[in-house]
Design goal:
heterodimer; A: mainly alpha; MetI-like fold; 2 domains; 71% helix; flat; B: mainly alpha; transmembrane (chain B); MetI-like (chain B); Phosphate_Transport_Permease (chain B); membrane (chain B); phosphate transport (chain B)
Chain lengths: 360, 316
């Protein structure tokens, strides 16, 4: 690779001779300017027909892209114009995808902060029919059930990942890989029905237990744990294993003492993300755990309250004091989002803090 | 070949199999097999609980028209919502993936990808809240307009719902939910498009779009298809958002904007299961079995496409 000073060819400003036309280009910010002008026109158009934000966005995106295309077509020709049109469309697609995210976060914050107070975190709904009350019981229930699900899923998922990376071969490995992938697509409600059917066959009809919810969540969580742990274990350099074998360390000790500690940051991240994925699951808990108003922390004894189910019923079955129920529902949704976001951040932190020291 | 291979492969019979090794290898293998058993168990237990509904006389099934009459409209509703979501989400997701991989400034691209992934982290019940409180009212004017101007299309036959809690709204909520799934996979395959092809295209004077059209899209096509199918699987099984937003109750209708819509399998289970008793439970589980089979087929097809691509591409 030659640097510019070594380059024998000098770049000149003169257009090349021969039949090639000098290429005309739009000034640097002209495309952006045309796009903004198109959006402004769109806003004007929607203002004429009764202003609404949605119409502004739609008109603006269409007219903006059109303005860029026409402007570029006149100056730069067809190919360049198509390129600019696609750039405008692709950027618009990204911006459009941001709209629901921003709108959702804003709405949940706006409506959820009304009851984001001490009482919400310290009171249950026991004997609460109107205002007041809180989600103390539901938050703890979610913690208990999710923890139980993690206790079931993490050993199975991690061991399976170890099998796939360290031991597996041939048809069984391929089958497990394939069906773990397929399992990630099981609808959450089907996982709930599975847990219900399993426990109904064992304990008889109308059984509702916290552990049923944990089993249902495990069905959803195990494949996620397997996939993320497998990816991480694959990254452990083979030299480390070989060095360990060369010292006469048995394979299982190599895995436990060399491979897992090397990968611990990635494993922690993967498991935390798996927890984050199931902590907001509603449907499987709806059919297996149900909901109660009081605090029940024993997953082997009857119904429990969980935050997503709590939020759902507060919204869909409000009592006479409707606003109080809606406020509680939105605050529960806010707490749920915060919980998921915190888990995501923790996952990032784990991968940063516990990353193996490379020594370089 | 044999000369170089021989020293690295120790003769099998001289390896000492310690008990620790056996236990560890056995438990690892056992949990792998356990996962397969769980998947088989899901099918087996669902079937065993669904059998009473399959064998019951048709007048005992809710609705009185037999199991097919009960599940049929639900399947239609499930497919309608999911396909609508797919049609909206796929082009958007491809656009997003292209933007993040080839258009966004390098420095912020990773952050943008993370923001899109956040969409996937938001619990579905919260999407339901948002769809009910924000999206449905926002879309009401469009419903009215569509009923006025597009009623010659069966999908917009009307009359328009006044609340906006329609299949159209549900489809858009689902589209937002599956957007990150499709765009994540599309992003991955787009970024794996061979650099040599891309640079060759640019060197021949292609514009950025021509480079993408010639070098990236043909390479990423199967990945996008697979991602779309995974998104479809998710949309088919989505429960809470649909249960909250959709005002169901109608039989089979293609009308997307009416005030009463065909419910979906998953949301129907979520709404009726807590109060169901006796045969009603079995009927709901039978409908869940149908959903399981549909999503399983979609997912297996998607995974098959992904794996086939992985086998033949130079990416791995």
């Amino acid at each position: 690779m030659s640097t510019e000073t070594q380059s024998p060819v000098r770049v000149t400003k003169e257009p090349p001779s021969g039949s090639i036309r000098p290429r005309r280009r739009l000034p640097r910010f002209a495309a952006l300017g045309l796009y903004v002008a198109g959006i402004a026109l769109g806003a004007l158009l929607s203002a004429l027909t009764g202003f609404s934000i949605a119409l502004t966005v739609i008109y603006g995106a269409i007219l903006g892209a059109l303005a860029v295309y026409v402007g570029s077509r006149v100056v730069e020709g067809r190919r360049k114009a198509t390129d600019r049109l696609v750039t405008a469309l692709v950027t618009t697609a990204f911006a459009v995808a941001m709209v629901p995210l921003v709108s959702l976060v804003y709405t949940v914050l706006d409506k959820g902060l009304a009851r984001f107070d001490g009482a919400f975190f310290s009171n249950s709904m026991f004997r609460v029919v109107g205002e007041g009350g809180g989600a103390y019981h539901a938050i703890l229930g979610t913690v208990v059930i999710t923890a139980l699900a993690a206790v079931i899923s993490v050993p199975i998922g991690l061991l399976t990942a170890i099998y796939l990376v360290e031991y597996g071969s041939g048809r069984l490995k391929r089958a497990i890989t394939f069906f773990v992938d397929v399992m990630t697509g099981i609808p959450s409600i089907v996982a709930g029905l599975f847990a219900f059917a399993l426990f109904t066959l064992v304990f008889g009809n109308d059984v509702r237990l916290g552990v049923m919810g944990a089993v249902a969540l495990s069905v959803l969580m195990i494949p996620v744990v397997v996939r993320s742990c497998e990816e991480v274990l694959k990254l452990v350099p083979n030299e480390l294993r070989e060095a360990s074998y060369a010292l006469g360390v048995p394979k299982w000790r190599t895995v436990v003492k060399v491979v897992l500690p090397t990968a611990v940051a990635g494993l922690g991240t993967g498991i935390t993300l798996a927890v984050a994925r199931v902590v907001g699951e509603t449907a499987p808990l709806l059919v297996t755990v149900g909901l109660i108003t009081g605090t029940n922390l024993n997953p082997f004894d009857g119904r429990m309250a969980t935050l997503p189910v709590f939020a759902f019923y507060q919204l869909t079955q409000p009592g006479t004091a409707t606003q109080a129920f809606l406020d509680r529902a939105w605050t529960a949704a806010l707490v749920l989002i915060i919980l998921v976001m915190v888990l995501n951040v923790v996952a990032r932190l784990i991968s940063r803090l516990f990353a193996p020291k490379t020594g370089r | 070949m044999t000369a170089t291979k021989a020293p690295t492969e120790p003769p099998k019979q001289r390896v000492v199999r310690r008990p620790g090794d056996r236990i560890f290898a056995g438990s690892a293998k056992g949990s792998g097999i356990f996962i397969l058993l769980v998947l088989a168990g899901v099918a087996a237990f669902l079937i065993s609980e669904a059998i009473p509904a399959l064998t019951a006389p048709s007048e005992d099934i809710p609705g009185g028209e037999g199991l097919a009459g009960y599940v049929g409209p639900l399947i239609l509703g499930t497919l309608l919502g999911a396909v609508l979501a797919l049609l909206v989400a796929t082009p958007l997701a491809v656009g997003i993936a292209l933007y993040i991989t080839y258009y966004a400034p390098r420095r912020v691209a990773a952050g943008m990808g993370y923001v899109i992934d956040l969409l996937a982290a938001i619990p579905s019940v919260v999407y339901g809240f948002w769809g009910l409180a924000v999206l449905a009212p926002t879309l009401v004017p469009f419903h009215v307009w569509a009923a006025d101007h597009l009623s010659w299309i069966p999908f917009f036959a009307g009359p328009a719902s006044a609340s906006g809690r329609t299949m159209l709204t549900v489809g858009l909520v689902l589209a937002v939910m599956i957007l990150p799934i499709i765009s994540a996979i599309a992003r991955e395959v787009f970024s794996q498009a061979p650099a040599l092809h891309r640079e060759a295209a640019l060197a021949l004077g292609a514009t950025r779009w021509e480079m993408i059209k010639m070098a990236v899209l043909p390479y990423g096509k199967s990945g996008v298809i697979a991602g779309a199918m995974l998104g479809l699987g998710r949309a088919l099984g989505e429960t809470m958002a649909v249960a909250i937003v959709l005002s169901g109750g109608a039989g089979a209708t293609l009308n997307l904007i009416g005030s009463s819509n065909p419910s979906t399998i998953a949301s129907n289970i979520a709404l009726r299961f807590p109060e169901a008793t006796g045969l009603g439970v079995n009927v709901l589980i039978a409908s869940g079995l149908v959903l399981f089979v549909i999503t399983l087929a979609v997912n297996m097809l998607a995974r098959w496409i992904v794996n086939r691509r992985a086998d033949f591409s130079g990416a791995n």
